[in-house]
Design goal:
Layout: H1 4-14, E1 21-23, E2 28-30, E3 35-39, E4 43-48, E5 51-53, E6 59-63, E7 71-79, E8 82-90, E9 97-100, H2 111-125, E10 157-160, E11 163-167, E12 170-174, E13 180-182, E14 187-195, E15 199-205, E16 210-220, E17 227-228, E18 233-237, E19 247-254, E20 257-258, H3 261-264
Parallel strand pairs: 1-8, 2-8, 9-10
Antiparallel strand pairs: 3-6, 4-5, 4-7, 7-8, 10-11, 12-19, 13-18, 14-15, 14-17, 15-16, 16-18, 16-19, 19-20
Length: 275
Amino acid sequence: MRTRKQVLLSLLALAAWVPAITLAADGAVADPGGIVRWSAAGTEACFLHGDAYPPLGDTCYYPFDLDTPAGSVEVGRRRHGEVELATVRVGDYPYPVQRLQVERSKVTLSEEDLERVRREQAMVGALWDRAMAEARFSLPLSDPLTEMPEPRSFGARRVFNDQPRSPHSGIDLPAETGTPVFAVADGTVALVGDLFFSGESVFVDHGGGLVSMYFHLSEVDVAEGAEVERCQHLGAVGSTGRSTGPHLHLGFRWYGARVDPILLLGKQVMPAIGE
């Protein structure tokens, strides 16, 4: 883990002209997959893990990936020509284990399927490195379903047919097959495909480092490269790919971090520095 001295040096390298650095008295606590906010008038830039990015309005948002280990993380912002630092304490992994039984061929893969999965992972992984564009969204995001069921399963350690797999990086929203699915914000359709695990899938780039994902669809009604608006129809709920029944898997990557969708949808209050 980076020391405070290393963080300070990184911030100075990013903004060598900054005349002063101050330390915030109050930090915040986040879960892996959580988001912390830090608001103040005049905020000009945000810093996390040595990277700089613009705020949304006067607020810096700090996303922490599901695999973030427990411990302290330094965050920063530039405001009125000064860099301010604060500490976020990331807690222990709080999510349960979820055991599921699915078709054996979706767990023990053939060589052909393994090669397909590798190609798809490389294709999807390239989305996290897209050139940074101006944010085209505001928070909270719009619901992807007209009637939102209770979200479930974010962060759950998945065990398929008694074989441990990666944690669940989105929320599952049970709904009947054919239920309309809508874009959570304006954006560009970055990828459409029938993928091995996620089935019929749509990825939307909203700028500002945010990508939304809609999985297991029964139909897709947008094309790759299309511009979409908040609440625009994208497709319909289904059970394609590795799925145990009809539902929408909604996921987000924000600056590459897998984060809990309920925070971006405004269903739960984000922890805040200084409050």
